[in-house]
Amino acid sequence: MVRGFGQQPCMTTALVLASASPRRRELLGQLEIQFEIVPSTVPEVPAAGERAEAFAQRIARDKALEVAQRRPGQWVLAADTVVVCDGAILGKPADRTEARRMLTMLAARSHRVLTAVALASPADALVEERLVATTVTFRALAAGEIEAYLDTGEPFDKAGAYAIQGQAAAFVTAIDGSWSNVVGLPLEEVRELLQRHGLLAVAAAASA
User: Fold this and answer.
1) Residues recognised as catalytic
2) Helices marked H in 80-164 — which ranges?
């Protein structure tokens, strides 16, 4: 089992991050908190007619509760990120053709990135949720640029088929909102959520 640590691993109450995403692990590691990685097994499939906001919130909630059942006595933090363009939910592309279609759709226009965050208590109960939206604008992309980006392999495990913290940063002309939200975890909102429930306050007291 993988363990992840912030700069000051001084919490007395363990936190579990219900995600295998290395991006979320790195972002959460910027907070002064100790945490453990336990990936969720919840399938990320939207229901027929389900809106993007409701889908992201449902998946984050289900991830938190599913992992909480497996890790009793621990706080569990879960998140789900989706890209939305023209009302369509763009998840992780299944193959190169789908990734190409997504990038072509996003080129020369703005889209929204939604991340839902859910926190479950040691009693396996959902405590609180957050939904954060960021608007991202891409410049026009030539077909050759898209093919070159696909060749890197970077798009294939990312919602919307791009990583803003990677080579796709060169595609972005504007961001309105949280950058870390686009990466996969809205850090300021997560910090506030953990502080609200006394998790980061414990770390701060222990390190004083």
Assistant:
1) 80
2) 96-106, 143-152
Output the CA–CA distances (angstroms, integers) from residue 119 to 6, 74, 139, 146, 206, in the order listed: 18, 11, 36, 37, 22
Instruction: Give tens-digit pLDDT for 44-97.
Output: 999 999 999 999 999 999 999 999 999 999 999 999 999 999 999 998 999 999
Nearest 5°: CA angle at 119, between 117 and 121? 175
Note the pTM of the prediction, 2 decimals: 0.86
72, 90, 93, 73: which is closest to 81 by C-alpha?
90
Burial class of residue 153, CB neighbours in 10 A (0-12, 13-18, 19+) = exposed
Return the exposure string of 70-101: e unless at least 16 CB atoms fall within 10 Å of the residue's CB, then b: ebeebbbbbbbbbbbbeeebbbbbeeeebbbe
Distance CA 21, CA 98 (A): 21
Measure the CA–CA gap between 83 and 104, rounded to whole angstroms: 14
